[in-house]
Structure formats: C-alpha cells, structure tokens
C-alpha cells in the first residue's frame, strides 16, 4: 500500500521549508525526532499515525523526493502547512497545485497505475481557508456564503484525485476551530467559541452531504471504494469531554492550554528576538498536554485522537 497526502499542517511532514516557518524552529520536534523536522508539533502528526495504522512508514515529503529513492514505495506527502483549497498565503502551494505535483509524478512514471491500485490518498483540510478569509476582513456573515465554496472546491479536488486512479480516499472533517487555544485564550482557555464551532458544523454538514452523494454514485458505477471522512470534530470533542469522566482519558492535565506559547501576543511558539533570546515558554511534559501550540495537537494529542473510538472506526472503514 502507498499513502499519498495532500493538505496542510495537520498532515505536513516537512514540505513547508521557508526561512521563517515555525515548524523548522526549536522547540518543534523535541519529542520526535529530537529536533525540528518540519512537523507542526513536538513530534509526530496525523500522517505518521495514519501510515502506522496502514502498516507502512510515513511517506516522504515531496520536498525531499530526490533523496528518497527507496522510500518512494510508501507513497508521498504533498501537504504544506498553512495551505487550503484556495490561496491562503502566497506563494504556498494550494491543494490544486499539490495535486498538479502528484499528476506530474504520475506522468513521468515515478508512480504507475498499478501503484495506485493499492493506494490511499489522505486529504487534510483544517481551516486555513477560513482563517485567511477572516484575516482579509471577511465577516462571520460572509463566512456563511464562503463555506459552500470551500466545500465544493474540496469535492472537486477529491474527484480529481480519484480520477487519477487512487482507489481509496480519506478526507478530514473540520476540527472544532472554536476550541483551539487560538480561539480560547481570550477566556483563559476555559470555553470554546460557539460562533466558530457553528460555522464548522455547517462546513462538516455540507461535506457529509457531498461525500454521501459521491459515494452513492460510486456504488452505482461499481468502481472504487467509498470515500471515508476522518471525523476530527467528534474525535476532538470526545477527548475534551472524557476529561471529566471517571474512566476518562485524564492523560491530559491541560486540555485546552497549549504546551508552547509566546510570552505575549506579539510572539508565538518558536519566536526569538533580535538577540536570539527565546520569546516563548514550553511546558515541562508535552505528553500531559493535548495542544502543542495555538493550533496543533501534541504527539500525545494525535495519539489519543487516533485511539479514539471515532477515528478507530474511520480507520477501519478506510482499510475495509
């Protein structure tokens, strides 16, 4: 089996190699591999856990394909932190461009049609289109009109990957954006932002409807497997809610608080000042935190998500 990965920082394992990318700065990567490796976490990210569940090594980042002769057998990772289906931050490669890269490798026979027979594509879309929209002055009202555009472009991308010959595809449902530390820090990481989460639920509903429709067509045409939604929304919520229960995963002392934060709002995890002084703090034990920074889970967070009954069921569907 090969794994091909498209999307953003929840899936990127080293493509975002620009000079100021957080993911290449200390303290990213302190848990694994022990130094920054381009992953937006203290360690492994979802791609790594997905590959492991498929019984393969995490596929090589597209950026490093030239050094990866014997690793191509695991597939390839095109995901690039900060991207979306539309342009979010120039000149980052949006999803269309990432699929162009993939198509180029198919055209030059780096991967063959028979490789694709036994392959899985994972498509990660976790909200950069929306943060870019709001950062450009978009309103919450405007968001209601923008969400259907994002979902329909996502569906176009998924159909294109399928047409290129990939048999199985998984796509993320949006995580509760209103519960990310970036949204909860204004109330000391106590409460999720309902406005954002309502928008997320609308996105996920439209995605669910679109994928159901595609899957019904697939069943009628008798080719390919159904597309599987990786339900990050309910996986995140299950971890937040288990906190209070007796048998709950009290692995995390700090469920909403990030392990690594800037010393004030002008700085973020990994920031240094002109003299090279650290302008951030890191928790003692990332394993006891669910969030690594304002947006991304820790390796322990990803591990707990992957073990959640929600994602276990999704991964089973992907392999059936």
UniProtKB/TrEMBL annotation:
One of its GO terms (biological process) is lipid catabolic process. InterPro entries: GDSL, SGNH_hydro_sf, SGNH_plant_lipase-like. The keyword GTP-binding does not apply. Transmembrane segments: none annotated. Keywords: Hydrolase, Lipid degradation, Lipid metabolism. The keyword Magnesium does not apply. Belongs to the 'GDSL' lipolytic enzyme family. This is GDSL esterase/lipase. It comes from Chenopodium quinoa (Quinoa).
């Amino acid at each position: 089996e090969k794994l091909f990965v498209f999307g953003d920082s929840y899936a990127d394992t080293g493509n975002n190699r620009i000079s100021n990318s957080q993911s290449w700065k200390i303290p990213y990567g302190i848990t694994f591999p022990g130094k920054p490796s381009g992953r937006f976490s203290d360690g492994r990210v979802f791609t790594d856990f997905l590959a492991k569940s498929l019984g393969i090594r995490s596929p090589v980042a597209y950026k490093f394909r030239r050094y990866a002769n014997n690793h191509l057998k695991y597939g390839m990772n095109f995901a690039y932190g900060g991207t979306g289906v539309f342009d979010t931050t120039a000149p980052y490669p949006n999803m269309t461009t990432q699929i162009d890269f993939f198509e180029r490798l198919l055209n030059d026979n780096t991967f063959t049609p028979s490789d694709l027979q036994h392959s899985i594509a994972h498509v990660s879309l976790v909200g950069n289109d929306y943060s870019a929209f709001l950062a450009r002055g978009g309103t919450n009202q405007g968001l209601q009109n923008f969400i259907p555009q994002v979902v329909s472009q996502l569906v176009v991308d998924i159909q294109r990957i399928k047409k290129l010959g990939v048999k199985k595809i998984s796509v993320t449902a949006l995580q509760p954006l209103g519960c990310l530390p970036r949204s909860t820090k204004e109330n000391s990481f106590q409460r999720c932002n309902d406005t954002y989460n309502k928008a997320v639920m609308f996105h996920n509903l439209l995605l669910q409807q679109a994928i159901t429709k595609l899957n019904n067509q697939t069943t009628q045409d008798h080719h390919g497997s159904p597309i599987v939604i990786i339900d990050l929304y309910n996986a995140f919520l299950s971890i937040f809610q288990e906190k209070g229960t007796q048998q709950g995963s009290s692995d995390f002392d700090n469920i909403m608080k990030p392990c690594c934060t800037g010393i004030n709002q002008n700085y973020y995890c990994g920031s240094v000042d002109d003299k090279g002084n650290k302008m951030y703090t890191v928790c003692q034990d990332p394993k006891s935190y669910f969030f690594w920074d304002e947006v991304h889970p820790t390796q322990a967070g990803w591990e707990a998500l992957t073990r959640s009954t929600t994602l276990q069921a999704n991964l089973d569907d992907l392999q059936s």
